[in-house]
Amino acid sequence: MTVMPMSYESFEENVIKLSLDPTVREMLLLNPREVIKEKLNVEIPQNIKLNFVENTIDTFNIVLPPITDSVKVNIW
At what angle do helices 32-40 and 8-19 cross, to 10 degrees? Predict the structure, then answer.
């Protein structure tokens, strides 16, 4: 078992492929850590929080990037 050996882009591509199977998709929503471990042989450290959400016809989720000291924030 490895801990995040691939790039983020590669990891994301693999998760997207997994999500095409309706059964696996449902499992990703319920228990993503276990699915990733089982299907991709990748163990996500426990200190990393995983949140999988699904867009639907009436719900669209937008992920906001973290605010860091290196990001200048201008409001209006």
Answer: 100
